[in-house]
């Protein structure tokens, strides 16, 4: 009982960035327990698994079916639970993404094993101990896992991917075709090409200080200047219909932990902070020097965003040579 | 249409969290408790479905301490027909035993639909509804932002990173509600009065411990104090310099 199963995520044949974080967490835990790491990728045929060895997988299993281009909970659950039953695992690690948050409880329920969700640190140096935020990030649980195997979902961006190269053996198997109680029929993609706030390493968010939906152009231009940044929003502007709910950061929106979070015209209400306070670096632009956002900001600029943001966009373009 | 809605009593979002004397839970003294915000969407959806079906019954079920009766009364005041409190002193951190206790009650209720909020804003497990569906062997869709039910079948939409998943299922099913599914109603005065007379059954339950033992609940370290780089657009070059050389994020 010392091996770790890393359940990875792919979209359209390409592994998601978060999969490297999952593997990194799995490798560290397996090393502490003295076991090996099995990586499991479920999806349509033709997933590119080369390079998984670089992040610490000892074995890679690709479970494929040409009809499995979308997340099908019943198939994924069956594949994961079958692999766990046939193996010798102390832990099953996946990412706390939309898919992972749906799959992890299914697996834990079917295996009747403990579930730790949205974990930000794992310690394997004396049994397994996990750390996970609760109460909107206002408190942190440290909990000991008292039964194995256990299912652990890790918060995206909480584990920094690190290379740990080895020769990974790759095996391919066909996916089972159980009855689908729940059938995913399609994914509607939004028109834009922009990254999701939960995935991007830079997030620029706008709030009510922008005064109207048309002024989000300023925020979008700044995001574009960074190259691959996402645009987020406070609840006030989502409720006002200026931005879609998918962009909302906070307690009733998404939790993000990017490398850089820029809050533009956002006051920093406790429910907003709940969604972004674990960002590595926080920048606040606000005309009110007493606004609570400055309490969590690493760098603040006090003043009118309509002057500051265009100037910042210009400077970032210069720095990035564009 | 027989519908169940599962509810949780949670601290208000504005609450300052203080750690209790045991070092493993919060100090509830002076904390205001509310119906979990996501559960409000679940209640509203159940009531709307009952209304459009023209017939049926909505049952609110909460697993928790005696004080959760108040939470159930809030749902009754919104229009839910009856309540069941599965009474227990303490809830484990591991959501699996919670799912088991709820599934034991829900499995005997012959419900067409079972609603949950997608997550409880205290322990953030994001799991209990989905666990229940697995234990009952029925379909489930989590974090539903849009829902259509007709002829014993349903179509749900759920947000995923960079898109919206469209999912089909047949009834009975478990659905967990995302913000935006609807606009929850406020209990009207008449509803509040009527809620007092609606049936609320209390059943004691014994929960398994689960496989997560809390060692400590702590307050996260405060972010190291930041600084104001300057005022107005003139401060921008200093900001960019700090982001490049100090923070090294660009
Ligand atoms: C149950 C519950 C859940 C919630 N969930 C969330 C959530 O998930 N996410 C969330 O964000 N909120 C959430 N909220 C709402 C939250 O309490 C705040 O109301 C909201 O975050 C405020 O949004 P805002 O900062 O854009 O607006 P405001 O608070 O109105 O702040 C606007 C800011 O813009 C600044 N400003 C104005 N003009 C300028 C200018 N020209 N230049 C520079 N600065 C300017 C002002 O100084 C002010 O600080 C929730 C609330 C509740 C009760």
The biggest sheet of chain B, with number of strands, parallel, antiparallel or mixed sense and barrel status, is: 9 strands, mixed
Which structural category do the helix and sheet elements of chain A fall into? alpha/beta
Computed over alpha carbons, the radius of gyration of chain B is 21 Å
Strand order of the largest sheet of chain B: 9-8-7-10-6-1-4-5-11
Number of domains of chain B: 1
Count of beta strands of chain B: 13
Topology:
The complex is a heterodimer of chains A (322) and B (250).
Chain A: E1 3-8, E2 10-11, E3 14-15, H1 17-33, E4 37-43, E5 59-64, H2 73-86, E6 89-95, H3 98-111, E7 115-119, E8 121-123, E9 128-134, E10 139-145, E11 150-154, E12 169-174, E13 182-188, E14 202-206, H4 216-225, E15 230-233, H5 235-239, E16 260-264, H6 270-276, E17 281-286, H7 293-296, E18 299-302, H8 305-319
Parallel strand pairs in A: 1-4, 1-6, 4-5, 5-12, 6-11, 7-11, 14-15, 14-16, 16-17, 17-18
Antiparallel strand pairs in A: 2-3, 8-9, 9-10
Helix pairs in contact in A: 2-3, 4-8
Chain B: E1 2-7, E2 9-11, E3 33-35, H1 37-53, E4 57-64, H2 68-78, E5 82-87, H3 95-106, E6 113-117, H4 128-136, E7 140-150, E8 153-160, E9 163-170, E10 173-177, H5 189-195, E11 200-204, E12 212-218, E13 227-231, H6 236-246
Parallel strand pairs in B: 1-4, 1-6, 4-5, 5-11, 6-10, 7-10
Antiparallel strand pairs in B: 2-3, 7-8, 8-9
Helix pairs in contact in B: 2-5, 3-4
Flavin-adenine dinucleotide binds next to helix 5, helix 6 and helix 8 of chain A.
How would you describe this protein?
- The complex is a heterodimer of chains A (322) and B (250).
- By secondary structure, chain A is of the alpha/beta class.
- Chain A has 2 domains: 3-174, HUPs (Rossmann fold); 202-319, TPP-binding domain (Rossmann fold).
- Chain A contains 8 helices and 18 strands.
- The longest helix of chain A has 17 residues, at 17-33.
- Chain A starts with a strand and ends with a helix.
- Helix content of chain B is 27%, strand content 32%.
- Chain B is globular.
- Chain B is an alpha/beta fold and 250 residues long.
- In chain B, helix 2 (68-78) crosses helix 5 (189-195) and helix 3 crosses helix 4 (128-136).
- The interface between A and B is large, with 95 and 87 residues.
- Flavin-adenine dinucleotide (FAD) is lined by residues 207-209, 234-237, 248-253, 265-267, 269, 271-272, 275, 286-288, 291, 304-306 of chain A.
């Amino acid at each position: 009982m010392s091996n770790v199963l890393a359940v990875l995520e792919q979209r359209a044949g390409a592994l998601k960035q978060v999969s490297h974080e999952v593997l990194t967490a799995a490798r560290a835990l397996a090393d502490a327990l003295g076991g090996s790491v099995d990586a499991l990728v479920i999806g349509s045929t033709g997933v590119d698994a080369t390079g998984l060895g670089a992040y610490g997988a000892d074995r890679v299993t690709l479970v494929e079916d040409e009809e499995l281009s979308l997340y099908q909970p019943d198939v994924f659950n069956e594949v994961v639970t079958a692999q766990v039953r046939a193996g010798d695992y102390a832990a099953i690690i996946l990412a706390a993404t939309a898919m992972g948050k749906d799959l992890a409880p299914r697996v834990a329920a079917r295996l009747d094993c403990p579930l730790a969700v949205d974990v930000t640190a794992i310690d394997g140096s004396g049994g397994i101990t996990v750390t996970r935020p609760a109460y909107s990030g206002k408190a942190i649980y440290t909990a000991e896992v008292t039964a194995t195997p256990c299912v652990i979902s890790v918060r995206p961006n909480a584990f920094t991917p690190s290379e740990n190269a080895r020769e990974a053996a790759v095996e391919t198997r066909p996916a089972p075709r159980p009855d689908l109680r729940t059938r995913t029929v399609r994914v509607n993609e939004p028109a834009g090409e922009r990254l999701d706030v939960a995935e991007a390493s830079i997030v620029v968010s706008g709030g009510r200080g922008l005064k109207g939906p048309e002024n989000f152009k300023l925020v979008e231009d700044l995001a574009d200047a960074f190259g691959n940044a996402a645009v987020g929003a406070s609840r006030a502007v989502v409720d006002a219909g200026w931005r879609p709910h998918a962009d909302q950061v906070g307690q009733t929106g998404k939790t993000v932990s990017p490398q850089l979070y820029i809050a533009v015209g956002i006051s920093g209400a406790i429910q907003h902070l709940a969604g972004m306070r674990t960002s590595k670096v926080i920048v606040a632009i606000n005309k009110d020097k007493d606004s609570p956002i400055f309490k969590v900001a690493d760098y603040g600029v006090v003043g009118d965003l309509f002057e500051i943001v265009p100037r910042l966009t210009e400077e970032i373009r210069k720095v990035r040579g564009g | 249409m027989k519908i169940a809605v599962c509810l949780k009593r949670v601290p208000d979002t504005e609450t300052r969290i203080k750690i209790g004397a045991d070092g493993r839970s919060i100090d509830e003294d002076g904390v205001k408790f509310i119906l979990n915000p996501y559960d409000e969407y679940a209640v509203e959806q159940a009531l709307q479905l009952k209304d459009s079906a023209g017939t049926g019954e909505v049952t609110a079920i909460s697993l928790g301490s005696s004080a959760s009766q108040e939470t159930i009364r809030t749902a009754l005041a919104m229009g839910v027909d009856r309540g069941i409190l599965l009474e227990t002193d303490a809830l484990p951190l591991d959501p699996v035993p919670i799912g088991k206790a709820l599934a034991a009650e829900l499995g005997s209720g012959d419900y067409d639909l079972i609603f949950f909020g997608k997550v409880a804003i205290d322990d953030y497990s994001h799991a209990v509804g989905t666990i229940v569906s697995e234990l009952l062997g029925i379909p489930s869709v989590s974090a539903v932002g849009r829902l259509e039910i007709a002829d014993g079948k349903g179509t749900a939409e759920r947000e995923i990173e960079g898109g919206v998943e469209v999912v089909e299922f047949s009834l009975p099913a478990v659905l967990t509600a995302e913000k935006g599914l609807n606009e929850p109603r406020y209990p009207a005065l008449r509803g509040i009065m009527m809620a007092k007379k609606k049936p609320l059954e209390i059943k004691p339950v014994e929960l398994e411990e689960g496989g997560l033992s809390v060692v400590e609940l702590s307050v996260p370290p405060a972010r190291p104090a930041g600084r104001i780089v300057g005022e107005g657009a003139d401060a921008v070059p200093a900001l960019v310099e700090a982001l490049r050389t100090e923070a090294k994020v660009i």
